[in-house]
Specification:
The complex is a heterodimer of chains A (about 110) and B (about 120). In chain A, about 0% of the residues lie in helices and about 50% in strands. Chain A is mainly β. Chain A is globular, with a radius of gyration of 13 Å. With about 120 residues, chain B is mainly β. Chain B contains no helices and 12 strands. In chain B, the strands form 3 sheets. In chain B, strands 2, 5, 6, 10, 11 and 12 form a 6-stranded mixed beta sheet that branches. In chain B, β5 and β6 form a beta hairpin. Classes of the chains: A mainly beta (about 110), B mainly beta (about 120).
Chain lengths: ~110, ~120
């Protein structure tokens, strides 16, 4: 079955720690995205990548970093510089880079800072 | 600037009632795309429909229907004979070509639908 997997489902972090969220897709999509969702709010774009070895900042990139070494994988690192990291993180992918391509989402990772 | 507004934060209905979720968008582009996604309690966003700006035909899929009106910049979603399984947060989103060279989505803040038995 084609789809997007994210791990772990739940993640707990102590203040000052970096943590990495995994996102893998087997849809052969070129473009991948990371979003952050806070309670009662819409999705905000953190980073996106249109092609392997290339990625760009989204609307709220501060305190986050990504890599895109393989087409299938787009991990997100939440660094200690992110002041309020507790949120629900969603990874998505789309076949094309242009407007109008539907984005497919993974099941999400819920990050809690202790 | 692009914007999607879902003014209804939360709606509660009793099973078998019809319910309409409102979505109003803003864009200066003549070519754009509108989407609806469902987010059940499990958290994953599920794609429901995509509409391009040149196709104003209403669409029906089972109990779901969508009313796209460019004159009022609205793309409303109706669930007929709602069921408990329809309980979720529903997001409306816009994608267009202005200012970005990638598939940027503008999401509304979502409408939480509670369907009670």
């Amino acid at each position: 079955d084609g789809g997007i997997t994210q791990s772990p489902k739940y993640l707990f972090r102590k203040e000052g720690q970096n943590v990495t969220l995994s996102c893998e897709q087997n849809l052969n999509h070129d473009a991948m995205y990371w979003y952050r969702q806070d309670p009662g709010q819409g999705l905000r774009l953190i980073y996106y990548s249109q092609i392997v070895n290339d990625f760009q900042k989204g609307d709220i990139a501060e305190g986050y970093s990504v890599s895109r070494e393989k087409k299938e994988s787009f991990p997100l690192t939440v660094t200690s510089a992110q002041k309020n990291p507790t949120a629900f993180y969603l990874c998505a992918s789309s076949m094309g880079q242009g407007a109008g391509n539907e984005q497919f989402f993974g099941p999400g990772t819920r990050l809690t800072v202790l | 600037a692009q914007k999607v507004t879902q003014a209804q934060t939360e709606i509660s209905v009793v099973e078998k009632e019809d319910v309409t979720l409102d979505c109003v968008y803003e864009t200066r582009d003549t070519t754009y795309y509108l989407f609806w996604y469902k987010q059940p309690p499990s958290g994953e966003l599920v794609f429901l429909i995509r509409r391009n700006s040149f196709d104003e035909q209403n669409e029906i899929s089972g109990r779901y229907s969508w009313n796209f009106q460019k004159s009022t910049s609205s793309f409303n979603f109706t669930i007929t004979a709602s069921q408990v399984v329809d309980s979720a947060v529903y997001f409306c989103a816009l994608s267009d070509w202005s200012g970005y060279n990638f598939n940027k989505f503008y999401f509304g803040s979502g409408t939480k639908l509670n369907v009670k038995p």
